[in-house]
Specification:
Helix content is about 5%, strand content about 35%. The chain contains four helices and 27 strands. The protein has helices at about 15-25, 25-35, 130, 375-380; strands at about 55-60, 70, 80-85, 90-95, 95-100, 105, 120-125, 135-140, 145-155, 155-170, 185, 190-195, 215-220, 250, 260, 270-275, 280-285, 300, 305, 320-325, 330-335, 350-355, 360-365, 370-375, 395-400, 405-410, 415-420. β23 (about 360-365) and β24 form a beta hairpin. The relative contact order is 0.16.
Length: about 425
């Protein structure tokens, strides 16, 4: 069992932090969805997509879910979609219907005290069809992060076998927010785990810049060892052997990398990092990277905006590719690169959204730059007094075919990007 730097007591959030969490929850979502004019979605460098790309709609594929946070499919499984619910269960969508019995049920073990706690993600092993292994990331009853391995039942492909559970990682969380929460396999076969800076506001313990703690990082671990240990640290990780540094760390300087994803075609890593006071951001790590990037928090926020000092030393920092201000949204939700077959014109576009305002945007990554920056809000998520608007977009994910889905957390629904039927 591995633990981040522990604390002598569990800290309470300040009144300011509780108000911020409330804003990012139902209260904030209601206010923004009903008060913010649509023009804000068009600020910045993003434009409405050209007419040739507007033949796209959101098609609802599941509803009546209990606070969904993620959708994912096993590799090469084009029939099923697994839906992660914050409250502790994983549901299976197949043939247009959600199966009643859950694939995983951790409802009695997850903490729901914080808006950002619960069952947060599911990752299928690249060889799931052969070995039945998968990994879940959740906050336990104490509010700490756990990543555990399980296997599917040999006699039932729709049920996990609780007897196979094995703890991979445990990280103490001093606060109930900024838990990160994503576990995902990379094209190299390693498991990547995102952890926020530990919570509260302004990274009070300096975790994101501290290589001695796992908080505020993306980790890279090998779960295909000899079976004696839950994981090994890849020898190619950037901080292996460095005194005072945790070898599991792949990248650091992150505030809350709630969602990140690999482009299945190029292997590039897209990281959506939730901001603090002014900016939300997306960084792209090219597949050729050897890791070790410092994405700047809490020295900077967004594209080089000094956070605590007027003048800050930004030497060695890796700046994000895209940012947007809090006049547009308050909490970024990444993100997937469209590689599906249904809408060829969208291939290569990375889609992301804002949890609070429902803004949906995309760009293409090419030659180290963000090109074809489009704002899809008026096309895919317009507000009207009659139909409202999809709020609380918790995640944008993909299935085994590369088709892209939008997860509506409080609305309890999942939508798919689809071609408009005329």
């Amino acid at each position: 069992m591995v633990s981040a730097r522990s604390t002598s007591r569990r800290f309470l959030l300040t009144l300011r932090e509780w108000l911020l969490l409330a804003l990012l929850g139902g209260l904030g979502g209601w206010f923004w969805l009903n008060q913010v004019p649509d023009e804000l979605a068009l600020e910045g460098k993003h434009e409405e997509p050209p007419a040739a790309l507007r033949d796209v709609v959101l098609e609802r594929v599941a509803s009546d879910l209990d606070k969904p946070l993620q959708v994912v499919s096993p590799p090469r499984d084009e029939r099923r979609l697994f839906i992660v619910e914050k409250t502790g269960r994983v549901k299976v969508l197949e043939g247009g219907k959600v199966r009643k019995d859950p694939f995983v049920d951790l409802a009695r073990r997850v903490s729901l005290r914080g808006e950002e706690q619960g069952l947060l993600s599911l990752a299928f092993h690249p060889k799931y069809a052969e070995n039945g292994r998968f990994f879940v990331n959740f906050t336990d009853s104490k509010g700490d992060t756990r990543v555990v391995e399980m296997r599917v039942r040999k006699d039932d492909p729709y049920r996990a076998d609780p007897a196979t559970e094995r703890q991979v990682l445990q990280v103490d969380q001093p606060f109930s927010n900024h838990n990160g929460g994503l576990a995902i396999f990379g094209p190299d076969g390693y498991l990547y785990v995102g952890l926020g800076d530990g919570g509260a506001a302004g990274d009070p313990f300096g975790n994101a810049q501290d290589l001695g703690t796992l908080l505020g990082k993306i980790l890279r671990i090998d779960v295909d060892g000899d079976g004696r240990a839950p994981y090994r640290i890849p020898a190619s990780n950037p901080f292996v052997g460095q005194r005072g540094a945790r070898g599991e760390i792949w990248a650091y300087g992150l505030r809350n990398p709630w969602r990140f994803n690999f482009d299945r075609e190029t292997g590039d890593l897209y990281i959506a990092d939730v901001g603090q006071n002014k900016f939300e951001e997306v960084s792209v790590q090219p597949r050729a990277s050897k890791g070790g990037e410092n994405y700047g928090w809490d020295i900077v926020e967004g594209l080089g905006h000094c956070f605590t000092r007027r003048n800050c030393d930004q030497t060695g920092l890796t700046q994000p590719l895209v940012e947007y201000g809090h006049d547009v949204g308050l909490s970024i939700s990444g993100g997937a690169v469209y590689r599906g077959r249904e809408i060829p014109a969208l291939r290569g576009h990375y889609f992301y959204a804002d949890y609070v305002t429902g803004v949906i945007r995309s760009f293409r990554y090419a030659d180290g730059k963000a090109e074809d920056r489009y704002d899809w809000t008026k096309v895919l998520n317009p507000y009207s007094p009659e139909t409202g608007k999809i709020g609380t977009i918790a995640s944008i994910d993909e299935d085994a075919r590369g088709e892209v889905y939008i997860v509506d957390h409080h609305g309890g629904a999942v939508y798919r990007l689809a071609r408009k039927v005329h």
